[in-house]
Amino acid sequence: MAATRFLTIPDVYERFIKGKKVPEADWDYKIIPQNASALKEKYNIKIDTFIPEDKAQKDALFQAGLEMLVETGFYCQDLGRVLKVTEEEVWEGVKRAPKKLILGEGRDIARFYPRRGNSSVKPIIQGGPTGSPLSEDYFVKIMQSYAQEGIVDDLVNGVMTTVEGKPAKSKTPWEVRATMQELRATKEARTRAGRPGLGV
Amino acid sequence: MDMTGLNMLAGWTVAGDTIMIEQMPIFGGYTGGVEETAICDVATTLASFALFCGNFHLDGPIHIRWGTTMAKETLQVAGWACAAVDANTDLLLANQYYPIAGPCTEMCLLETAAQAINDTASGRELLSGSAAAKGVVQDKTTGMEARIMGNAAAATAGMKVSEVNEILGKLVPMYEAHYTDAPAGKTFQECYDVTSVRPTKEYLEVYDKAVATLESVGLDMSRANCSGIRVCKN
Lengths: 200, 234
Description:
The structure holds two protein chains of two kinds. Helices cover 43% and strands 14% of the residues of chain A. By secondary structure, chain A is of the alpha/beta class. Chain A folds into two domains: 9-96, no CATH class; 101-192, no CATH class. In chain A, helix 2 packs antiparallel against helix 3 and helix 5 (139-147) packs across helix 6. The two termini of chain A are 41 Å apart. Chain B has a single domain, classed as Monomethylamine methyltransferase MtmB (TIM Barrel). Classes of the chains: A alpha/beta, B alpha/beta. At the A-B interface, helix 1, helix 2, helix 3, strand 2 and helix 4 of A face helix 1, helix 2, helix 3, helix 4 and strand 6 of B. Strand 6 of chain A pairs parallel with strand 6 of chain B.
């Protein structure tokens, strides 16, 4: 049946609270492995290279993954419930997703477009520690070391371990303060590298 | 998904923010082997857009034993899942980097290059990294790892996938043989001049050695200089 529309976050919440109750252990140890294994057999998926070279192999894996989502659903561990989604709703969500994004500002922007296979256009290089712990004292310098690389098109920051000497502990005000300081420090780093518009 | 994540998404969607949904399937965990993990990776990639309003997806298949995204099996999961989604949609796909070895070591640079080669040839649009030393040791990441990631990607862009598979078949065993004695590497403070923010001569020499090794397995790194220009900039 055709979808009424793509799903919004409130739609997803409403589906979760009306979803079937499933113990988390059943989800993790039974439902996921059993369903994935059955779909591997159904679609005859055999991975023997790093990257598939045959279109039929790609399509088989895509169909298996799509069926996994539609037939199995998605779990919310806080509610202990499983949401169901139809294939048509999945496609509405795919259609809704942007196919082009602009990262950064001014002369330093990077355009985030579909490459479609191994295009001769290289991917966007997002340089940074990707969540690795960085000391407060060296945060700006380490981020600058990424921003000054010519091949880097965009930045991802690390995690500041302390703020004003205090541990940036989760679920405390120091966590929020550290997050804001990371953003300011990353912007300072890109400016020091002469690329003030790099996406952060 | 938990309620904290869902509530944050409720705010971001209304605020008009660009939303990246991150998900790291664990090879050897609940999902099982390479094929099963790849199926779940495709499923959760689609869910990121269909259920959670993602604008782009950040993958990161990780090995349950080694804690790296560059093991043979995790590269296969990432390569197949990306190629499958890329062949059937125009979704924007990214991947993140967790090598075992630390900065200023050839192994760290080769691990990072291998994933960049794999990600580029399988069709990803954005590479995010690199979190050297598994991303868990303070100050053990530097811009030089991003340099090899970017240049290896640029050198790979446009190559035949069959050629890329051959290169990876030679490259990956070179570092996988050292998982149990992987070099810890150096901190940023030890491999950069922290005043001028320039890599040390030692690190530049290690970098050149890694490039030579990549050339020896068939990757023409000189292509990075022309291919890099073709990134979608202004």
